[in-house]
Amino acid sequence: VQLVESGGGLVQAGDFLTLSCTASGLNFGDYAMGWFRQAAGQERDGVSCISHNGAVISYKSAVKGRFNTTRDNAKSTLYLQMDSLTPEDTAMYYCAADAWVAPSRWADVSAYMYWGQGTQVTVSS
User: Fold this and answer.
1) What is the three-class DSSP state of 109?
2) Separation of alpha carbons 101 and 52, rounded Å
3) N or C: which end of the chain has fewer CB within 10 A?
4) Sequence-ordered list of residues with C-beta below 8 angstroms from that of 41, at least 6 positions apart, any chain
5) pLDDT per residue over 66-106, tens digit each?
6) Cα 125 to chain center, whole Å?
7) Sign of CA dihedral 84, 89, 91, 94
8) Is 87 helix (H, G, I), strand (E, B) or coil?
9) Nearest CA to 34 among 120, 107, 110?
C-alpha cells in the first residue's frame, strides 16, 4: 500500500491551497481516509476524516468552514481544499487510510493502518 501526498508549498495568509493524496495497492473505495497535520515540535493532529463512500465527513473544529475534504474513488485520490489559511495552519500534512475507523476515533493516529510521507504547508503572515 502506498499513499502519496502532493500540493503543499509556501503560501501567504488568506490564500487557498489544495492537497491531494493518491493511493495504490488497496481498494480505495473500501477505506476511510483521514488528513492529519503535525507542526514542528507538536503531536500529529487529526484534521478531517471521510468515510469510504464520502457520506460522512468529520473536521477538527479549528478548520471547520475553511477546509473541505473530498474523495474521488474512481481516481483513488483524496483531496483537502484549504481556504483562508493562517500561519497556525503551518505543518506537515499527512493522509492516512484504514478499512474501518470508528466515528469516535477519527482523529486518533492509532485508528489508521496506512500513512503517507507527508507534504509541507507553510503559511507566511
Assistant:
1) helix
2) 10
3) C
4) none
5) 999 999 999 999 999 999 999 999 999 999 999 999 999 99
6) 23
7) negative
8) helix
9) 107
